[in-house]
Amino acid sequence: MTIAIPQLPAGWTFVDKHYVRPTVGTEFDMARLNRLCDGQFNFCFGFTLNTDIPNLPEAVVEALVRVRFSAPLIAASIEPLAGSPDNFQWVYAPMKSKDDALAWARATLIVHETTSTDEQVINSITDIRLPYHIGDRREQVFACHLILRPNGEHALFMHGSHAVLDARPTMHTLRHLFHVIVHHDDEPCLDQLPYGGEVASLPVDIIQLLGKDLLEAAKTSGIRLPEQLNKNLPSIGLAPQRNDITAPALRACVGATINTDKLRSVLSALKAIGFSFTLLCDAAIALTTIKRNCNLDADWQYIHDNTIIALQRYFPSGYSEERHIASSMAYVPLVLSPQSINMDSPLCDQLVEVMSALRKEYTDYFSQPALPFANIVARTELRSLPLNPHRPFFTNIGVIDKFVPSMWVGGNNDKLHLELGELKFGHRIINMRCPVMHAWTFRDVFHLQIQFLDVYDMEYLQSLLDEIITTMLGIVN
């Protein structure tokens, strides 16, 4: 089934059988990283799973067709703008028919029959250089990888440019994928789908969403950075065990957890004193980093420059977050002066002191109308901060179950059709000399993970993680 072309979302134009618009904000930043830094931060994200669904590969193929109607950029390419190779644009060719859509989905799904571990699979996937080449010489910055093992411990990962796969858009896409797999019988048949009509779901960029007037005001006001930031003072990091990267792109990973009972105690303690879990993570990482630099004689500061702010909170009412499958972030620095922390006080008091300081900085950022455009209007200023190349890089993805349930049951059948086991993911890291940390909570267990290159020893970073976890648990005392 084909339909008349619907009205295009704002910012998109139709050129030579394709829909195009410039990449904006962190879409641009991530596209630039991919092009200039050999795919830096390309993203592989998914779940281990068990299921009794027959012919799982074919079920995923059909589900990808359905998902493309709400996430068309999974079939798009990112290309340099003509005459301006340092800038980029989305290029999307619409689905023509059921056969065209199925051919695309079969080329987009890569099935691995293997006994390799998830970590080995993720590293092999992130070794892949984007773009993928699909069908008749078409390029796209996305693929779906289905891992099938003889013991039934399967996995499914989405891999692509961070320009399309931020954590939230990826989770929305995975939720939709699992839903249409499990509820296949409730979905219209593929013959009835309005091929070509998916262009109505092409995501509107952040400037079009919030308005050019707000952008111009942001250019005038700029972004107010934390008052304790001293651009003439060096910042601290986590000392590496060697200076040279001997194996570029050879990524290793360590992890630690807080179990359900301890996590419940932590959340209860935080609720009693009015702080969020993300603030606790920020504070524990900051305190651990500061304490590991306490032997330095010179004055210094702690800067976490890539504090992620999800921009979905700014989307206008009526605009669907679940259908906005593209990067939508701002990242701003958090700053601490170690002289402002009483290191002789109990650990719980230190945490409260640091969380209070960081909350003040968050509050100040959120009070600024320019915040959604921080990486557009303050890009040069943010890149000129006195950053330590070994500073920790941290993001808390949040509670995964709020976005992707772990249990999926189909239709009126009480039988479990699909169960997600663990969240697994990794980035393509090429030349970053800092520990790349991510946190998330899934099935009532908190996870903290570090990816790193071989300037660090695994034992050093495992001890770092253990220290961070111990510091977080200090809020209970």
Kindly list the characteristics that best describe this protein.
alpha+beta, four-stranded antiparallel β-sheet, 477 residues, CAT-like_dom_sf, Chloramphenicol Acetyltransferase, Condensation domain-containing protein
Describe this structure in words.
InterPro entries: CAT-like_dom_sf (IPR023213). The protein has 477 residues and is an alpha+beta fold. It is 31% helix and 25% strand. It has helices at 26-36, 56-68, 98-108, 118-126, 167-182, 206-210, 212-221, 260-273, 277-291, 347-366, 374-377, 379-383, 458-473, and strands at residues 13-15, 18-22, 43-51, 77-81, 84-92, 109-113, 132-134, 138-140, 142-148, 154-160, 252-258, 302-310, 329-336, 393-399, 407-409, 416-427, 436-442, 445-452. The strands form five sheets. The chain has a six-stranded mixed β-sheet. The protein has a four-stranded antiparallel β-sheet with strand order 1-2-5-4, covered by helices on one side. It has a four-stranded mixed β-sheet with strand order 11-18-17-14. A hairpin with a 5-residue loop joins strand 9 and strand 10.
- Quaternary state of this entry equals single chain
Q: What's the end-to-end separation, in Å?
A: 63 Å
Structurally, how many domains make up the residues? 2
Low-confidence stretches: none
Number of helices: 13
Could you please say which CATH topology of the largest domain applies here? Chloramphenicol Acetyltransferase
Secondary-structure-based class equals alpha+beta
Assigned CATH class of the largest domain: Alpha Beta
Strand residue content:
15-25%
CATH architecture of the largest domain: 2-Layer Sandwich
What is the count of β-strands? Answer: 18
Largest sheet: 6 strands, mixed
Estimated radius of gyration: 23 Å
Percent range of helical residues: 25-40%
Report the CATH superfamily of the largest domain.
Nonribosomal peptide synthetase, condensation domain
Mean pLDDT: 93
Indicate the overall shape: globular
Protein name: Condensation domain-containing protein
Organism: Phanerochaete carnosa (strain HHB-10118-sp) (White-rot fungus)
InterPro entries: CAT-like_dom_sf
